[in-house]
Amino acid sequence: MKALRLLPLTGLCLAVGFPLAGICADKVEIRQDFSKTLVYKNSWTSQYFSKRADVIDKDKETGTVDVKHYGDWVSIEEQQAPKEGDAPGTVRIKATLQDAESTVTEDNAKINLNNYPHVMEQLRGRAFSWRITPDGTLDQFAPEFKTYEISSHSLISDLHQLWMPQYRIGLPDGPVGKGDTWTSEQLIKVPINQVEKIGTVKSSSTYQIKKMKMKDGVNKAEIEEVREVQYSGWLFSSGVSIMVDAVGGGKVKWVMDVDNGIVLSQEVKLKYDKVDVTTVDWAFEKPDEMVEDAKAKMKLEFKRKLDEIR
Question: Rounded CA gap, 284 and 226, in Å?
Fold first, then answer.
């Protein structure tokens, strides 16, 4: 992803003078400014479906597997001071979660907490931090608490793999206007300690400015992102433990406050129709086993909306 842009385009317009006045009226700089404390409402729904319950779900001999995760949380996001060794322009973020909750269902039946206690309610009041390097790489996602305080490290890796691929918009090389396009790539790596694997989300995106308008005193840009994704991650519930390697994609709608460099809202809709599955025993008593013809599909929807600027 491109380097962070922290200077608004208005400064450029003033600096170069009258000859670019027409361009500056039609073009804006897409950037993200993390200097203010931002409060977001976040929500998501993910679904995994397979016709091979006979080899995927230890509680079934035939039939299908239909696992859904959904939930929401509020994040209070604050910029932190750089650490020793950070390159100039590095941004560090700390986010405290509030009102977090989640639910897991199998075949549309809610899994009770005795069988699956790993819900997001355990993350209420807890904080996470991460780093954005000058070239836009997002890394060093980590909890700001002792991991033994929660039931499973999977809550951390799941949040990492869900949230971080959505956090940064790819930035163009210069000012853009309605109809302009640009591209960006991103790779998120996620340690999955429970099964000693590394999850990844690799995306290639094309962005286009769809609308630009002034509304309620805010200069807004609506941006459409067409995203192609290669995903590798762990999915588990009471009867399922699998590594999923999937290829898919979809669209993301961004609404930006371009003058202040703030994401106002975001809607992500992704589908994965090419899904390979490997069963994984988290007790390490059985070897991993590739599932032939898993007949699997996945979906992900994620939303966030700015609630407050502090």
Answer: 39
Cβ neighbours, 10 Å, residue 127: 16
Domains in the chain: ranges and CATH: 9-309 (2.30.230)
DSSP state of 177: -
Instruction: Give me the tens of pLDDT residue by residue for the chain, a chain 310 residues long.
Output: 444 443 344 444 434 443 343 344 589 999 999 999 999 999 999 999 988 877 777 777 777 889 999 999 999 999 999 999 999 999 999 999 999 999 998 888 888 777 777 789 999 999 999 999 999 999 999 999 999 999 888 999 999 999 999 999 999 999 999 999 999 999 999 999 989 999 999 999 999 999 999 998 999 999 999 999 999 999 887 678 899 999 999 999 999 999 999 999 999 999 999 999 999 987 777 888 888 888 899 999 999 999 999 9
Model's pTM, two decimal places? 0.88
How many Cα atoms are found within 13 Å in the side-chain-facing hemisphere of 80?
A: 18
